[in-house]
Structure formats: structure tokens, C-alpha cells
Amino acid sequence: MLGGETLEILVGTEGDSLPLMDINASETEASELWDYVLVADRCTQRNPRQVQRRQQFLEELERKGFCYKVREDQEKVFFGIRADNGIFDRYCRLLVQPEDTAPRGELARLTSIPATTRIRIVNFVLNSKTAAGDRLQDLVKDGVFEAGFPLHKGEEDLKKKWARWRTMFQEQPVGDIRNYFGEKVALYFAWLGWYTYMLVPAALVGLVVFLSGFAHFEASQISREICAAHDIYICPRSDHNPTYHRLSETCAFAKLTHLFDNEGTVLFAIFMALWATVFLELWKRERACVVLQWDLYGWDEDEEDMALGLTDSPDYQLRLHQHSYLRSAVVFLLSLLMICFMIGMAHLLVVSRVVASALFSSALPFLGERVTTAVVVTGALVHYVSILIMTKINKCVALKLCDFEKPRTFSERERTFTLRFFILQFFAHFSSLIYIAFILGRINGHPGKSVRLAGLWKLEECHLSGCMMDLFVQMATIMGLKQTLSNCMEYLRPWLAHKCRSMRAMSQDPELRHWQHNYRLNPVNTFSLFDEFMEMMIQYGFTTIFVAAFPLAPLLALFSNLVEIRLDAIKMVRLQRRLVPRKAKDIGTWLQVLEIIGVLAVIANGMVIAFTSEFIPRVVYKYRYGPCRQGAHPAVDCLTGYVNHSLSVFYTKDFQDPVKIEGSENVTECRYRDYGTTQNSSFTEQSWFLLAIRLAFLILFEHVALCIKLIAAWFVPDVPQSVKNEVLKKKYQRLWLKSSSPKSTDV
Question: Are 562 and 147 in contact (CB under 8 A)?
Fold first, then answer.
């Protein structure tokens, strides 16, 4: 830039279809004709090596039929890139596309090719290797270029109809999203919208189950017995400030536990297993209808990749599928090692909870039995922070494992990476929940003979109201933080970054100002859409896998998704550079992930009800030990005496040092949650019978739920008959035209 004027250079091929006078006629109109913009720092102009590599890259583009225009401001050098229409003609000849029927003529070809197709082809060519072995992403990594991106053009419609908060409850314009961002992004929002819509019945049923607990908030026999148990003392649960507490002190927690640990929990878990299957089957039908409208029903991904390769270079060499048992074995072993590391992280979380319990008990004695709740909340916060850290580590590990396997195409690489990353993320997110649901409080020993960590600290125990309370708090804390803090950061970070960049001076020239505006938007990468999908998959896991412990999860997910859709829309249209459109006819590997989560949900919820909830012990007591074992009595509640029955007795004289326990002089026996004998706390016949019933229920529940899933999947066809008939008609019409046209048949 000299004397405040913008330096402007146009370079093009001789036979290019865009004359110079058209560009200079109107800067605003001309800016609409550029497919891509590359940006370099002006400081690199002083580096001869970088200037040479940049010039070689641009000359290579010229030979492929591109023209470019150079514009500068005080800090950056901008290169507007446009491809000759001959490139797109080659692509159209290779694939049967609707554009083939467009009338001849240069202007007609230019307007008939969708902008998404142009951008996709240009991006593929730019990221293909040149004669010097450079790709655009390599040049960006080496600092030759700072960035490269397609321009936002014609997005005003989406801003009005989609990317604003006032349209939160309106239907998404999926067709317009497809025309602007491509099929892959459009399918993501179509799936997200369908998922949100299907969450409505799940949220309503979960809310009813939760509120049904309020109907019996005061009427629950178990809560009444706990609140009236003033003469029952609980054995000390901590080494620091050990004391006996009356069972009646847990009255409030007992009532709260009944809100989500009642008879409706089992029915809700079965309902959610059925819901997950119906949701997936109906989504497959919805996808089939959408894809048919887009004329992509018979589209082939491999054929698309080969067409792009031949469009870029006639010398394109097909890369065949490869498989190496050695590589697969190495990847498998490394994945197992990483999973073991994640399990080790879960053990560290356990240690942190044990240490936190000891610290809280000694430093904050006034908390009393509320120490357990404080430890659970603290553990959930620590786990949330570990999730944030491990997400970055998991992404790097999954990428390295994926590259080691040497996938054939970008799509294959994405599928492999998706599975690797999801498995690691699953263990990162759900390890603490698995520990609380199935391990916490079950390996602690018994009073007088407690299991200790490193021989010093007692292992953490479940809440006095049961492990369901701990699981509920953990679920609510992690899911609440994920849906609130994560969403806030997801929006505020790009919004603030964009505001800071927008404070710089803009050029008076309309075209350069348009390029500057796009450059100052937040950068995107190949993981931008992937991260959105992964976030939704983890949320779907929380909504289904441990939903028996947190019936409000679907409701929380529903509210979160209503906000998430608009957040993503505003980010993509207003705050981020334009994503490179990609073609797709389904959501790919994510559908397999959803099916895996559905199966895990059946197994996990069955185990939660069988081993974590008090449902099975209550049913066994009703029909084997309670007052109704010989038949129901209208005047007697069948759970009368359950609390006393479910607590084991321990004589305080058997403590190694009973004098140090506060209040021990007036207490001869204390109670703890288990079915042990009074003499040596060993398992009784009743405890073995209860274990057998738990296992029998688990097997029955999983078989019933899985059978319901299979029946629902069979009953609801993946593809609607109307779609099948439409495809059949198109095939018939194509064959009929060939049979009735001898000339076309001869050709």
C-alpha cells in the first residue's frame, strides 16, 4: 500500500471466462464471483523462500485453470481465487448431476452450478498436492499463507429466518441450510431438530415420573419410618470427628430420594429403551425423505471422491483399500492402553473424593453428615475439569491412531477417527458414573473392619439415603455444567474474539472490506462440525444411559437443544468463516454410535435398577419378609418395617477404640446399610437370595427391553414406502426413456 491506496493485481489465464472489465465495473458484483480467498501476512514478503513457494503455488493454480486477484491493506495480503468453468464442466461430465441439463453458454454454466459444489471442488483442488509437493494446509502450517477460506455470500436469508433468537421455536429451513452450507451441515441440523422434537415425549414422561414422587412425598412408608427413627443410630462413617447420628436426621434426603427412586423408575427405563429405538427408526425414515428431495438417494461417496480426484488431475491414481493385521493389532493395543489410562484417571477421582472427605471432615466439622453431599459435588466438579482436559488429549491420541492406520480417503479417516474418539470420550465422561453406580460403597468392608486406602483413609461410602442419591447428584452436576457452562463458553468465546477483531479499521473499498470482514471471523477447521456432533452424542448418552437415576435428563436436554440450535446457527452464519460444504446422504458413523448408545442404555439402566436402586430389595421385602407376604392387608402398608429390616446391627463394644467415638457411652449398637449377621457381619441367606433376584431381574429386564427394541425396529421400516415407490418410478422412467429412444441406446 503506497500513499494510502490499495494495491490491486489481477492474474488469469488467457481463455478465462471473466474479463477484466467485468471485475473493475463493480467491486460489489465482482466480490460475488470469487470462490475462495487466501490471506498472507505482509511480513512474509521479506522472506524470499516463502514468496517463492507462494508464487509457485499460484502458478500451479493458473495452469489448472484458476485466476487470482491480489489486494493489500496495511497488515495483510489477500488473494481472491476463482476457478474456470471448465473445471466444473469436467466434474459434471464425470457424475450425473442436475447441472448437466443446464443450457449451454458460459453465463448459464456459471449460474447453474450451485455455490456449494463450486466451493467443494475449489477446496479439493487447493488442498491437493502440487508438483512441488505442497498443499494449501501445508503452506498454512509453514506460514506461507495465514489462512484460506470460502466467502460468506448471500447469507442474509439465513440470518433472518434461522440465525436469530426470535426464531427459536420455528421450523429450521433445512433446504436453505443445504443450499448454503452443503448436505453434511444440513443433515446435522435436520438430525438435531428431529432429536429435539422427539425429546418432547421423553421429557414429559420423565417429568411425570419425577413429579409422581411428589405425590407420595409425605406418604412414602419408607420416608415416614426414617423420619420417625429417633432411636436408631448410624455407625460412624468417618475417621475424623467420628460420631453417631440418628437415622431421623436423614429425613429430608430420604424424601428427596423417593422423587427419582420409585416404582415409576423401572417403567421409565423401559420406556426410554423403546424411545431410543423408535427415535432412530423414525430418523432413518426422515433422512430417507430428505435425501430423496435432494436427489441424493443413489449418490455414492467413493464415486464422488474419484470424480473430485479426476477433476483436479487427469493423472489421478486410484488409491486402493489396504489392511494390515499388524497395524490393526498395534492400534487395538494402544487403544486398550489409553482406556486403561482412563480407568486409572477414574481411580484418581476416587482417591480425590476419599481425600476430600477426610479434609472436609477435619476442617469443616459443622457439616456433619452433609460432608457426603459436599464430597459428591466436589467430585463432580473435579470430574468435569478432567473431562475438559482429557477431551484435548483424547483428540490428539485418536488422530495419531487414525493416521497410523493410513485410511484411504478423508471420509474413511473421519469414520475411523469418530469411533476412536467416541470410545475414549465415553470412558472420560462416564467413568465416574460407573464407579458411583456399581462400585461405590460395595467394597468398604463393615464397621470395625473397614477397607482403607493406603492403610490410612476409609473408602468413601454411599449417601445414607442410598447410592441413587450420589448418582443423581453426579448426573445433575455434570450434565448441568455441560449444558450451561459449555454452551456459554461455546458462544461467548467466538463472540468476544470476533468483537475484538472487528475493532480494527476496515477498507473503504467494498470488495476488500468484504474480504476483511470474512478474514476477521473466527476460523473453522475439519473438526468444527465434528465437535458439534460429538457434543450431542455425549448429551444423548447422558439422556439415555443412566436415565433411571435422573428422569429429568430428557427435559434438561430438550431445553439445552433449543438453545444449541440457535447458538450453532448464529456461530456458523455470523461469527465463523464459512464451512466448506460437503456432500452426504446420512450422518455416517454417528448412526452406529447412536445404536451403540441405545444398547448400552438398556444394560446400564437394568444394572442401575437391579444393583443401585432400592427397587429390588423393596419388592423382595413386600412378598417374602413384609406383612403382606401372606396377602395384602388394606390397613397395613406392605413396606412397614422395611427400614429396620434393611439395616444390619453392629455392637459398639466391638469397635477397636469405642471411647474415642463421641456419644458412645449411651449407644450399645449402631446400624449400617447391608444384610450382614450381627456376630461377624458376614453375608446371610437373605443377602444371597437378594443377589439372585437382582441377577434374575437384570437378565429379564435386558431381554425384555432388547426384544422390545428389536420388535420396534422391525415394525418401523427404515425407508417409507412412498420413498421406495418414488425411487422405483425414477428407475422405471429412466429405463423407459432408454428403451423408447434408439439413438440414446446406441450411444
Answer: no
Distance between the two ends of the chain, CA-based, in angstroms? 58
The domain boundary residue, chosen from 617, 652, 684: 617
Q: Is residue 125 part of a domain?
A: yes
Task: Indicate whether 125 and 232 sit together in one domain.
Answer: no
DSSP state of 624: I
Q: At what angle do helices 410-438 and 301-312 cross, to 10 degrees?
A: 140
Query: Is residue 659 domain-resident?
Result: no
Q: For residue 474, which of 367, 563, 358, 349 has the smallest C-alpha distance?
A: 349
- Considering 181-185, 208-212, 311-315, 476-480, the range whose residues carry the highest mean pLDDT is 181-185
Q: Tell me the pLDDT tens digit for each residue of 346-401.
A: 777 777 766 776 676 666 655 555 666 677 677 777 777 888 888 888 888 888 88
Q: Which of 118, 151, 184 is the last residue of a domain?
A: 151
Q: Please tell me the total count of domains within the chain.
A: 3
pLDDT at 680: 54
- Domain match, 25 and 57 both: yes
C-alpha cell, 691: 443377589
Q: How far apart are CA 618 and CA 640, in angstroms?
A: 10
Spell out the residues 6+ positions from residue 406 whose beta carbon is closer than 8 angstroms to its own: 322, 327
Please answer whether residues 705 and 480 qualify as being in contact, where contact means their C-beta atoms are separated by less than 8 angstroms: no
Residue 81 shares a structural domain with residue 186: no
DSSP state, residue 441: T
Q: Which of 14-28, 225-239, 351-365 is most confident? A: 225-239
Give the up-direction half-sphere exposure of residue 616: CA atoms within 13 A in the CB hemisphere. 22
pTM score, two decimals?
A: 0.84
Residues 6+ away with beta carbon under 8 Å from 138: none
Q: 269 and 136, same structural domain?
A: no
Residue 587: CA count within 13 A, CB half-sphere: 27
Q: What is the pLDDT of residues 627-675, one digit of tens each?
A: 887 777 777 888 888 888 888 888 877 776 655 665 556 777 888 877 7
- Does residue 666 fall inside a structural domain? no
**Percent of the residues in the chain that have a pLDDT greater than 90, as a whole number:** 12
What average pLDDT does this structure show over 190-218?
Answer: 87
User: Do 86 and 125 contact (CB within 8 A), yes or no?
Assistant: no
Q: Which residue has the cell 471432615?
A: 361
Residues spanned by the domain of 225: 174-617
- φ/ψ of 708, rounded to 5, equals -60, -40
Same domain, 131 and 218: no
Are 138 and 178 members of one domain?
no
Do 418 and 589 meet the contact criterion of CB atoms below 8 Å apart? yes
**Rounded Cα gap, residues 304 and 182, in angstroms:** 14
Say if residue 137 is in the same domain as residue 231.
Answer: no
The C-alpha cell of 102 is what?
Answer: 443446464
In residues, how long is the chain? 747
Residue 498 covered by a domain = yes
